[in-house]
């Protein structure tokens, strides 16, 4: 690894495709720093004692972007990433074209799509229970979530991805692809 080279990996993908799992692996194996778009939203919801549901996260994100500009969250995370001294930075949850318009200007930014089949993603969503409403969600509700503005915008973002990670397989397959990605860009 070139000790002076820093790479910023922007992870995009549909609900429960494995963005967080991939980021966690890179943290543990390669010492990466991770920044999530949803972290700032969850922090605000916690502070105002509002339940962390997908609806509330979307509503808050739209409010912030309407009030302060479509790219305000990308600018915040991008500045955090630039200040971070670690050599591998993961920005998890790139969802909008405005996000990649800003993040794409950062040196050594690489947009990475992580994908998996819908049934696999649904099973993962139920198992992880990240949001208050996830564990009781039906498959039909899960599919309906893909019609929300935040998920529809991802369809445009993934077309811009420079790299793709197939997360339909086992842990070893995912880890191998991530290790290859790190080797390619560091």
From TrEMBL:
Q: Which domain of life is it from?
A: Bacteria
Instruction: Please give the Gene3D superfamilies that the UniProt record associates with this protein.
Output: P-loop containing nucleotide triphosphate hydrolases (3.40.50.300)
* InterPro entries (UniProt xref): P-loop_NTPase
PANTHER family to which the protein is assigned, alphabetical? DEPHOSPHO-COA KINASE, UPF0200 PROTEIN MJ1399
Per its record, how is this protein called by name?
Dephospho-CoA kinase
Q: What is the lineage of its organism?
A: Bacteria, Candidatus Magasanikiibacteriota
